[in-house]
Design a protein that fits this description.
By secondary structure, the chain is α/β, with parallel strands linked by helices. It has three domains: 42-177, Rossmann fold (3-Layer(aba) Sandwich); 202-440, 3-Layer(aba) Sandwich (Rossmann fold); 444-546, ANL, C-terminal domain (GMP Synthetase, Chain A, domain 3). The chain is built from 17 helices and 25 strands. The strands form six sheets. Strands 7-6-5-3-4-8-9 form a seven-stranded mixed sheet. Strands 12-13-14-15-16 form a five-stranded mixed sheet, sandwiched between helices. A four-stranded mixed sheet has the order 2-1-11-10. Strand 13 (304-307), helix 12 (314-322) and strand 14 (326-332) form a beta-alpha-beta unit.
Length: 552
């Protein structure tokens, strides 16, 4: 039958889902709520709105127009939050530059995104000096300075950020436009070839904000985000909009704490002094904070933290729970804006012991509202919901990137069959909880069967001497591949435990848990550190390449 469309009257307002709309509610009820940078600079939401207008006016004076790309190189700061809003609200595009990439990769991303204006913290001036003469489209530079000495650079700055805002009016009239207009772009971490450009529209960012807020607020107790929380990101704002949480925190009118460069002493001080109750980070950052020498001086009880980026081990989850940290997994990709699932527990689950809770908190979780997430076989058929049958996670939601910037073939592969392919393998149980068992590229193929590197890592991490572990597949003449555990020992136990002891410990657990009958082929090597990507994820590709030749 024909579909009847809803008709609007000529005078009705067709409400576009634009980023500027996220500011209405906090300005109505939380105008005096506080935002702080390192505990040194403090201002209110009313001040934030004023500075957003000043930034837009200043950028307009520099010639920025709708469709232009403004790039940002800064640590997590109030300035970054202002750019999150002002630049896309003008109709321009915000490029969040991954400052931990190599200078050559940063050059590539700026040229590929065709950035025209670059806002750059003085700490990154050495990078700018190395690439300035090869920038193809950047025509205007703005300096960001926290009162430190400014080195000589081969570029001329048009303005300094704070002076620029002080001279600009705050009454910028942010227009309405198509909600599908591009708002942001950033680049994947580039572990395979050149970084890929990922982009998102206003509509996608607003829909992601609403859905994550609904999921976080819908939890009755565990991991619930509410208006009285104090938010601090511990995932870089240059990476997938700090997982979208600055937009969520702003829409909800939360007190916000921006730490600048991630230093464990600073993060712990801010948690303590600013009463931070909600954050998000990768497992390596949580491990660093829990084991830092100053950690015991900070009461972490009641701190809610979403862990993503890579798998959280049960040992890490239990260590956090023992400190009173309400830790749980969130899952997504750069290409998914990013959040797709959250491992929220039912109220009855909170009565279980720490070990049982850790198992649930380490699961990939339950899909957010509006997320159509399937686990499928090679023919795109759904696998059984029994917690055993595995397949690839494919997904649809209103906020997934529609492709890679300037890469049509890679975009087609990403969306093969009409679903975004995550390249993650997992299962789903009868309660709907999803569990990722590995990345397709990280699965170890032993004697023709798949062995999960993540499951073996989880077992090895239970040994009291293990600080960090990564399991990779290395070539083997008999088995094709066999698992190798690269183990970082806790400093106080170095030299007091052998590789053989770790291997025997893991082999016993592998046999008793039935994780994989080929897991007992595990080798163990002690290393000083694990290779990581620019956003703190364990970089298994580089570790595989470094250890492609098996030991004699």
């Amino acid at each position: 039958m024909p579909v009847k469309l809803v008709q609007s009257t000529p005078s009705a307002y067709a409400y576009p889902l634009l980023i500027k709309q996220l500011l209405h509610t906090p300005l109505a009820f939380a105008a005096e709520q506080e935002i702080t940078y390192q505990g040194k600079i403090r201002y209110t939401y009313a001040d934030l709105r004023r500075r957003i207008g000043q930034l837009a006016s200043a950028l307009g004076n520099l010639g920025v127009e709708a469709g232009h790309t403004v790039a940002m190189m800064d640590w997590d700061s109030h300035r970054y939050l202002e750019c999150f809003f002002a630049v896309p609200m003008m109709g321009a595009i915000l490029q969040t530059v991954n400052v931990r990439l190599s200078s050559e990769q940063i050059l590539y991303t700026l040229n590929h995104a065709q950035a025209e204006v670059l806002l750059v913290n003085r700490e990154f001036l050495p990078i700018l000096a190395a690439i300035a003469t090869r920038l193809e489209t950047v025509r205007t530079f703005v300096l960001i300075n926290d009162d430190g000495p400014v080195e000589a650079t081969p570029v001329s700055f048009s303005a300094e950020y704070e002076s620029m805002l002080a001279q600009a009016g705050s009454d910028y009239d942010f227009p309405d436009f198509d909600e599908n207009a591009q708002a942001t772009t950033f680049y994947t971490t580039g572990t395979t070839g050149s970084p890929k450009g990922v982009y998102f529209s206003h509509r996608q960012l607003v829909m992601h904000t609403l859905s994550v807020a609904a999921a976080m607020g819908g939890s009755p107790v565990h991991g619930r985000l509410h208006r009285e929380d104090v938010y601090m990101p511990v995932t870089p704002m240059f990476h997938v909009h700090a997982w979208g949480f600055p937009y969520i925190a702003t829409m909800m009118g939360l007190k916000q704490v921006y730490p600048g460069k991630y230093m464990p002493e600073t993060l712990l001080r801010l948690i303590r002094e600013e009463k931070v109750t909600f954050s998000h980070c990768v497992p390596t950052i949580l491990q660093m904070l829990l084991t830092h020498v100053h950690s015991t001086q900070t009461d972490l009880s009641g701190w809610k933290i979403v862990i993503g980026g890579s798998a959280m081990s049960q040992a890490l989850a239990q260590a956090a729970l023992k400190r009173g940290v309400d830790v749980f997994t969130g899952y997504g990709l750069s290409e998914t804006c990013p959040v797709l699932t959250l491992a929220h527990l039912h109220s009855s689950d909170l009565e279980a012991g720490l070990e049982e809770q850790a198992t649930l908190r380490c699961k990939t979780g339950l899909p957010l509202p509006l997320v159509d997430l399937r686990i499928v076989d090679a023919q795109m058929r759904n696998v059984a919901r029994d917690g055993l049958a595995t397949g690839e996670l494919v997904v649809r939601s209103p906020w997934l990137t529609q492709g890679y910037l300037g890469a049509p073939q890679a975009s087609e592969e990403l969306w093969a069959g009409g679903y975004l392919h995550t390249q993650d393998i997992g299962n789903v149980d009868s309660r709907g909880y999803i569990k990722i068992t590995d990345r397709i590229k990280d699965v170890i193929k032993t004697a023709g069967e798949w062995t999960s590197s993540l499951e073996i890592e989880n077992l090895v991490s239970r040994h009291e001497a293990v600080h960090e572990v990564a399991v990779i597949g290395i070539p083997d003449e008999k088995w094709g591949e066999r698992p190798l555990a690269l183990v970082v020992l806790k400093p106080e136990l170095e030299g007091k435990i052998t590789e053989h002891a770790i291997r025997n410990f893991a082999a016993h657990l592998i046999e008793t848990t039935g994780v994989s009958r080929h897991g007992v082929l595990l080798q163990v090597n002690f290393v000083k550190a694990l290779l990581k990507t620019s956003v703190g994820k364990i970089n298994k590709r580089e570790m595989r390449e470094a250890r492609a030749i098996p030991k004699a």
